[in-house]
Amino acid sequence: MTASPAATERAPAARVLTASLVGTAVEFYDFYIYATAAALVFPQLFFPSESATAQLMSSYATFAIAFIARPVGAVAFGHFGDRIGRKSTLVWSLMLMGGSTMAIAFLPTYAQAGWIAPLLLCILRFGQGLGLGGEWGGAALLAVENAPPGWKARFGMFPQLGAPVGFIAANGLFLILGLVLSQDDFLAWGWRIPFLASALLVIIGLWVRLKLTETPAFKAVLEKERPPMVPLGELFRLHWRETLGGTFGVVACFCIYYIATAFALGYGTTTLGIQRETFLQVQLVAILFMAGGIVWAGYWADASTPRIVLAFGCALSIGAGFLLAPMMGGGDLLLIGGFLSLLLLLMGFVYGPLGAWLPGLFPARVRYTGASVAFNVGGVIGGGFTPIVAASLAAEGLDLVGIYLSAAAALSFIALMLLRKPALD
C-alpha cells in the first residue's frame, strides 16, 4: 500500500536535527548549571552551616528532586505528545524548564530568607525536572521519526549530542566566572549569571522549534485512528515489558554521567582539595570524549543495531568501575583526567544509541509516553540519588563507588540481554 503524502513528507533534515540538538542543549545546559552550582555554590548559600559535608549532602538532595519530578513530567508531556503532537509539547517543555532555571537567579539565600530560600530552590528544581521529563523523549522522536531509512541511529544521536554541548556551555561559563571573579564576588552574585543566561538560550530554542512541522509518524497515526485517550494506560496494558526493559536499560548512562560530573566535581574539590577551575578544565576535556563516543556509537548502531552497541558499552562500563578507586583516589590529575575521559567515552556508547533504541520499542501512538517514561524512571534509578549515594559510599571507601558504578552497568546489560524485541518503524 502506498503511504499518503502526509505520512511520508519529512521536514528538512537540517532543521529537524538543529531543533533536536539545540533544544536538548538548552535543557541540559539548564540542568547542568544546577548540578555544578549544587556542588560549588548552593551548599554555602542555601543551607545552614552545620558542616561542609552536611551542606554538600543537602545540596545533592535538592539535585535529586528533579529526578523525582522527571517521571511526572514524562507522563504529563507524554500524554499530550501522543494526543496533540510532538511540536507543541516540546515547546511547552522548553518554556517550563527555562523559566524555572531563570527564576533561580533571583532567589534569596539562607542568610537573607531562612528556610524559605531552600524551599523556593526545591520548588524551582521540581519545575526543572518536570520540563526535562518531557524534553528528551520528544526530541528523540522528532529526530528518529523524520529519519530516512537506515539513518535512525545517526539522526537519533543528535538529542544526545545536546548533552556535551550543554555541559561545555554550563561548565565553561562557570570556569570563566571563576577566573575573572574573586571567590567573594562569585558567591555574592556571580553564580547567578549562568541562570540568567538561560533566558537567551531558551529564546533561541523556541525560535528553532516553532518553525517545525509534525513528524510523519504522528501524522500517520492521526490519519488511521484516533489518538489514545489515556496513553499511559495503553502503555502499561499492552507494552509493560518494553517499558520495564527500557527503564533498566538506561540506568547505566545516568549513573556513569553523574559519577563522572557531579560526584567527581564535589569529591575532587573537597576531599582531594583540587582547585575548582582546575577540575572544571579536566572535565571539559573529558566531555569531548563523550561527544566522540556518541558519534561513534551512532554510526555503529546504524551499521549493526542500537542494542548491540548499548550492550557493548555496558559490558566495558562494568570493568571501568574497578578502575575508579585506583585512578581517582590518589589525586593525580593525569590519572583522574584519563579515568573521566574513559568513563565519558563509554557514556557515549551507553547513551548515544538510546535515541534510536528506546523509541523503537513502542508503536507511534504511545511512543512519546513510552520513551519518556522509560528514560526518566531509569533516570531516577540510575542518576537521581547517585551523587548523594556516591558521596556517602566514598566516605567509607572509594572502591565502593566503583562497585556501585559496575552494578548499575550490569543492571542495564541484563535488561538489554532480556529485551530482544526488534525495533519498530
Number of strands: 0
Rg measurement, Å:
21 Å
Kindly name the structural category: mainly alpha
The first-to-last residue Cα distance is: 16 Å
Can you tell me the number of structural domains? 1
CATH topology: Growth Hormone, Chain: A
- Overall helicity: over 70%
CATH architecture: Up-down Bundle
Main sheet attributes: strand count, strand direction, barrel closure: none
Total of DSSP H or I helical runs spanning 4+ residues: 22
Tell me, what is the CATH class? Answer: Mainly Alpha
* Uncertain stretches: 1-8
CATH superfamily: MFS general substrate transporter like domains
Strand content: under 5%
Tell me, what's the shape? globular
The average pLDDT is 87
Written as H for each helix and E for each strand, in order along the chain, the element string is HHHHHHHHHHHHHHHHHHHHHH
Briefly say what this structure is.
The chain has 425 residues and is mostly helical. 81% of the residues lie in helices and 0% in strands. The chain contains 22 helices and no strands.
Question: How would you describe what is shown here?
Answer:
The structure is a single chain. With 425 residues, this protein is mainly α. The protein has one domain (11-225, 239-418): MFS general substrate transporter like domains (Growth Hormone, Chain: A), CATH 1.20.1250. It is built from 22 helices and no strands. It has helices at 5-8, 13-40, 42-46, 52-83, 86-104, 110-113, 116-144, 152-180, 183-190, 192-209, 216-224, 231-238, 240-249, 251-269, 276-303, 306-320, 324-328, 333-351, 354-357, 367-384, 386-396, 398-418. The protein is globular. The relative contact order is 0.16.
